[in-house]
Amino acid sequence: MAQTHEKKIVIEVEPIGKRIFLENPQNGLKALHDGGIELKSVCAGKGTCGKCRILMLENAAPPPTDQELKTLGSDEIEHGIRLACQQVFDRDIAIYISASSLTEQQKLQVTGDEADIKVDPVIKKYYIELKPPALSDMEADFSRIQNALKNKFKIDVKRIDYTVLKKMPQLLRQNSWKVTVTVRDDEIIYIEGQDKSALSYGIAIDLGTTKIATLLVDLNTGSTIGKKGAMNPQISYGEDVMSRINYAMQDQQSAARMTNAVVEQINKTIAELAGECGIETDDIAELTIVGNTAMHHLMIGLPVRQLGLSPFIAITDGPLELKARDAGFNICPGAYLYLMPVIAGFVGSDHLAMVLASRIAEHAGNVLGIDIGTNTEIVLKTNKGMESVSTASGPAFEGAHIRYGMRAASGAIERVIIDPATCVPKIQVIGDKKPAGICGSGILDAVAELLKARIINARGKFQPQSGCLCADSKGGLQYILEPSAHNNRLNCANEKTGSAAGKNQGNGSSSALNHELGHMCPCLDGKVSIGQKDIVEIQLAKSAIRTGIEILLESAGISFDKIDKIVVAGAFGSYIDPKNVVDIGMFPDVSLKKIVQVGNAAAVGAKMALVSKSERKNAEDIARKIKYLELTIFPSFSDHFAKSTLFPEPV
């Protein structure tokens, strides 16, 4: 018999819910990688990049190492944050890994952190066995079902879907009067032969401007059994909300094209999920969708002209329930589509779903909730109530309007650190491939690192004297993001200028002269880089978010130091490094332990409304309490925006 070795060290990894067993003490980063946890590490485990942050739970944090003292902030160390690469796992411990420390490959942000809730969906399935009719018992088929449900389950059904009613007689007789009835409130929406009560499913969707996150949920247990992300095909009609509204305003055919595109994509995704999970689309009896107000209106064919013209009013801000088939969705014939309330013209039901999922309304203190996306919605909850704003942060964080920008896909640079002494970057690329571009988290990293290395100043302007830059074909300065290109950066500048200055490594003269003469540095050819216009795009995006925060604080009459918690939601919100967000001034200076990243909370909120009647009502109650603020009517808006474009002075 083969000898078995008892596993002596147990590592509990939250919130992933994974347990790693070690036979011997092991370096933390290696143990996690070997255990299938794709933790970030740009510096190859030297502790200089600070990307492999872990939180030691249950007061298990050992004294920080010298390298951790250099890399981590004092508040992080005090809070129990350590670097996995600097730790030795030599005892049973529990650790928490935030989404920002995981590679983008492992972080498909279709969902986020979920709270335990009571499963009580609006639809339920009941199996009944009926007595067949006879000359002595001539009760109508529908009445026979109504009485059976009332007698056995105390369910008072008053209505039946017309399509179900038409098929009911044949179905009852083909199945010897043994059927499963799906009931929603007081209506029968589906009848199946035999006992199918265990097959009860629903779909929850976060319909984003860029991405569609779809969850397939078992309504008997509340478990997500399948999830899938897809691009919103409407992006071909415009990258942002206003572009799509303007397109839809052209004529009815244009609006219909956008509606059809998104419905077809959702149907395709639902069919794929059903197939992968071994169920039929007819088993899906409820569909819940959240999204911004424009996505909400366009999806069900509502006019959007009033959303594109001041004062930007939604047609309705209440919940909507309509037959899913009437909106074009291919699920259970009598199923309903439920749309959570929107807040205002530019604050949609996705924002409400985020507030619901993160329990912001129930928090005792002052809480900021920030859902970062193409449009960024921000809510501030204080003892005075809740107020929300929408900021046009633009698609820069999705890689749009950035010269080498791309979405978080294979080949995208997702993490960047820069050695200020040598100018050389260290990068992490999704899929460990040759860089094809840079995604949002990488762009934000790069700007923060350029600022720390003083390659850009507080106004976001490149500093030629840094010696870290090259000129493009038009004479514009670029910072090359590929490490290999920096090996010959100074030499290639000399080849063009004949200057001896470049031989003095670090003085930057050759780069500056190269720029003045309008020569293109050969090292730049074909390499991913970041230029001045890219930095401006990030300045505008981060300024929009910071301005929204400042005006909410101004309206509530409190200062930022009175904020107890900052909830950061959204797919991009999970990718970002919180420290870099603070370093570039997108958030005011704050203790990092106040920042909580919750993933795609909008999808979680949509799921909560799908599986729980009480959470659905809770969301509708919250919607009535949130006050919308229009940023542009505040006299201080322009001043806040101008100040917020500046970066903090690097320490």
User: What is the CA–CA distance across the termini?
Assistant: 63 Å
As laid out across the biggest beta sheet, the strand order is 14-13-12-15-17-16
Number of helices: 19
Instruction: Tell me which oligomeric state these chains represent.
Output: single chain
Gross morphology is globular
In the CATH hierarchy, the third-tier topology of the domain at 201-349 is known as Nucleotidyltransferase, domain 5
Main sheet, how many strands, which sense, barrel?
Answer: 6 strands, mixed
Helix content: 25-40%
CATH level 1 class label of the domain at 201-349:
Alpha Beta
Report the average pLDDT across residues: 86
Instruction: Work out the radius of gyration.
Output: 28 Å
Q: Tell me the β content.
A: 15-25%
* Poorly predicted residue ranges: 1-5, 104-109, 493-519
What is the CATH homologous superfamily assignment of the domain at 201-349? Domain of unknown function (DUF4445)
What is the CATH architecture assignment of the domain at 201-349?
2-Layer Sandwich
Count of extended strands: 29
- Which structural class do the helices and strands define? alpha/beta
